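User: My instructor asked us to take a sequence, write out its structure as tokens, and then describe one feature of it. I'm not sure where to start. Here is the sequence I was given:
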Amino acid sequence: MKYIVPTFYWSLLAVVKAVVLAFTTTEVVGREKMPRQGALIMASNHFNNADPPLLGAVMPRRLVFMAKHEMFQWPIIGMMARLAGAFPVRRFEADLGALRKAAEILRGGQVLAMFPEGHRSDDGKLHKAHPGTALLALRSDAPVLPVAVSGTQNISIIRLPIDCLRGRRPHIRVTLGDPFFLPPVERVTAEEAQRCTDIIMAKIAALLPSDQRGAYAEAASPGIERT
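Assistant: Let's start with the prediction itself. The structure tokens for your sequence are:
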């Protein structure tokens, strides 16, 4: 399994890249901002089931996804997720096993990919996030890389080839912000975790078009402008 997972991951992404190139116009802004080595938490918004493979395809490093537990029960998708190295988390509860696995990944100097909202947005806007991402960043001292994905909210995987044949290739934009460390705290409390969650989400929001910032429209960091 040690060798199967990386091999399957990169083979799967080769297929995803071919699909992305064939059926969409995808723009990646700030790819050079991802550190090429060391522990990193990549935090992104989540508009579509296509977001995880898309992000894996455009990033220069292998991503290890924390994904909802339910997905691993799906016959084909679940098997592929496991073979690609993703691991399950029980959302909306304290899943200590998932947190330990995430901490292990970061100790190994890998990139942990997370969607702080915990679910897909059904309206193409940011929703209030859960504190898991901030908790891991605070406890591991790993930097956070904010990432925004725009343009996937209206994509249907089934209709994609037909839309392409009709000359309607969706434009997808993936924007990477500057990696940053959360401010140090004396004690990791619920209040501090929420404050740091808002910091992470504000940085993601600032990378999105203003009409997609949703719950974080007012909190978007003024120092980070979408280009």
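For the description part of your assignment, you could build on this observation: The chain has a mean pLDDT of 88. Try explaining in your own words what that tells you about the chain.
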